[in-house]
């Protein structure tokens, strides 16, 4: 019996130490669980919803009779103040934390009651830091959302202004086309009819008959040129049918070369401003091919890709871009019109690429983003 008693006495300090270690481990585990639960609450809910619950748990953890949390409001107005419990006369500050984010946490309790130990204070500081981080993240998210809203609003305003600008340009083109039709075209047509009538009346034997015939032919050519210019200024197909149909009509009128048109009908559903600009770019590129490329084959593609971009390709097998520039520079006032195409596409946030084709000639590629509602439609 004595040996057994001595054995228990000898091991009793170890048991006490193990119990103390066990209690300390339990306390650490409880603190860790508290930190994790607070983090989970802040992650699962918006800050304004989670903050009162976390504040209540902080108050219980510290044995506080009153807890107060002050943090900046999302709209930048008066700071938000959350309070839990009531303060009594004998209460004092158990814990206070404030960082540069503007969040302030204060726990108040009996000054002669439970004191906050070093480990508990460290736990409170960790959770206070979590509160500050969550508040800062939500404020940053709100600021980001506000910036995105402003950018979207500015994008919509810019799109509206671009549409108004393009519409104004097209209205001016239409006005000029009407003026030409009612003025110069009518005069040229009248002159042509008068000259033809005069040639018929003077007879074949008259000495001026050949010259009058030449003048009549020149007048008829002027009428044809004026009508072509009027159609280019504002083709009715662009208003009635859309950009693909208007381009097809333009390409059908080309003689002297093989023309391949791959025009997706979806382009006719593009916004009016996009359709007009792509038609004008195609019009300029096709005119360059006809006048300067000396091509035998012309390929025009118009389509919309899966990423929501409008595309135009004009490819010929004639002179390369360098040769075309050189020959044009020899003509006074001649120009490729590339700056004009770039300026038009820039209005849509698009761009143009011009280079040599795979088998010679020139390849013009233009693309621009389509509005989201057009893509989804």
UniProtKB/TrEMBL annotation:
InterPro entries: HATPase_C_sf, HATPase_dom, His_kinase_dom, Sensor_HK_TwoCompSys, Sig_transdc_His_kin_sub3_dim/P. One of its GO terms (molecular function) is protein dimerization activity. It comes from Rhizobium esperanzae. This is histidine kinase. Gene3D superfamilies: 1.20.5.1930, Histidine kinase-like ATPase, C-terminal domain. Keywords: ATP-binding, Coiled coil, Kinase, Nucleotide-binding, Phosphoprotein, Transferase, Two-component regulatory system. It catalyses: ATP + protein L-histidine = ADP + protein N-phospho-L-histidine. GO terms for cellular component: membrane. PROSITE patterns: HIS_KIN. It holds the Pfam family HATPase_c. SMART domains: HATPase_c (SM00387). Residues 137-171 form a coiled coil. Its EC number is 2.7.13.3. Residues 278-372 form the Histidine kinase domain.
């Amino acid at each position: 019996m004595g040996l057994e008693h001595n054995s228990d006495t000898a091991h009793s300090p170890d048991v006490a130490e193990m119990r103390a270690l066990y209690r300390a481990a339990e306390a650490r585990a409880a603190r860790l669980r508290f930190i994790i639960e607070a983090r989970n609450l802040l992650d699962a809910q918006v800050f304004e919803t989670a903050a009162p619950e976390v504040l209540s748990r902080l108050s219980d953890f510290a044995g506080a009779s009153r807890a107060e949390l002050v943090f900046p409001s999302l709209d930048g107005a008066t700071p938000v103040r959350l309070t839990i419990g009531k303060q009594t006369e004998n209460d004092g500050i158990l814990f206070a934390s404030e960082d540069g984010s503007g969040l302030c946490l204060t726990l108040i309790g009996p000054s002669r009651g439970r004191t906050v130990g070093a480990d508990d204070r460290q736990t409170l500081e960790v959770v206070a830091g979590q509160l500050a981080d969550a508040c800062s993240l939500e404020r940053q998210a709100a600021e980001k959302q506000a910036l995105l809203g402003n950018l979207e609003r500015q994008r919509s305003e810019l799109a509206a202004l671009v549409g108004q600008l393009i519409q104004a340009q097209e209205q001016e083109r239409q006005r000029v086309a009407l003026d030409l039709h009612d003025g110069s075209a009518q005069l040229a047509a009248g002159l042509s009819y008068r000259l033809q009538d005069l040639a018929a009346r003077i007879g074949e034997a008259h000495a001026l008959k050949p010259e009058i015939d030449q003048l009549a032919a020149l007048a008829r050519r002027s009428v044809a040129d004026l009508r072509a210019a009027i159609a280019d200024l504002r083709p009715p197909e662009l208003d009635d049918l859309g950009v693909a149909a208007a381009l097809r009509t333009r390409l059908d009128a080309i003689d002297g070369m093989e023309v391949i048109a791959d025009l997706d009908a979806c382009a006719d559903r593009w916004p009016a401003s996009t359709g007009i600009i792509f038609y004008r770019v195609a019009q300029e590129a096709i005119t360059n091919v006809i006048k300067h490329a000396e091509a035998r084959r012309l390929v025009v593609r118009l389509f919309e890709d899966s990423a929501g971009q409008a595309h135009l390709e004009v490819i010929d097998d004639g002179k390369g871009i360098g040769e075309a520039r050189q020959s044009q520079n020899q003509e006074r006032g001649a120009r490729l019109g590339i700056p004009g195409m770039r300026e038009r596409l820039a209005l849509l946030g698009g761009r143009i690429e011009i280079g040599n084709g795979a088998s010679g000639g020139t390849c013009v590629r233009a693309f621009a983003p389509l509005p989201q509602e057009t893509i989804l439609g």
